[in-house]
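Morning, I've got a small favour to ask if you have a moment. It would help a lot if you went through both lines with me. I owe you a coffee for this, so here goes:
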Amino acid sequence: MADDFHKPTQYSGDKFDTFIGGEDPAQIVRMAHDTAHALIDRGRATEDPAVLQRLVSYTDEHGIDALAELWARSNPRTLPGALWRIYLMRVLIRQDPTGMAFLFQRGTEVLQTIDPVVAGATLPTGPDEITALADQILRGMFVGDFAVALDRAAAFCRVSGAGATSVADDTELTNPTRATELTARAARLAQTAAEFAASARLHRAGQLE
């Protein structure tokens, strides 16, 4: 993402682009992978709930800036790329829990798949439930099955994307600009879902670096 960040960051939901870092791309890649592995190792090595909560809520205190600088340019099918998208997803949900809950709830009503169950949100899903879901998914990167956390994130994106598409259809005649925005959001969510799912498969194969 090309925006300059200032704490607290309001991270726009319509951007998933690259971040300009240092001069040496190889060094940036190494740092991204080293920090991602260090963070996961720290979370999985502790049983202290306070430490886990600090890892989950890191962006609440520090903003998304530092993580963007470290991970935003990473390939989405890598550990830092997956972590970046998980943290970003949580930030976007917390910035607009009502709007995200509405899209997710609509998605559960129109999507005839198991994805709402996989995502694991309480139904019906309101702002409190969608915020709790974001924390649960991110916490799952540090405890339990890492690939399952990625699968839940992918399911969340698919459900929310289906909701965005449905709402776009409803508003196409009365508010075409809004419909276009929602259609674009649905496409981004579908892409991110595919990236999470690919990362989950790589992790199960021992190939998520």
Remarks:
- The chain has two domains: 25-90, 96-203.
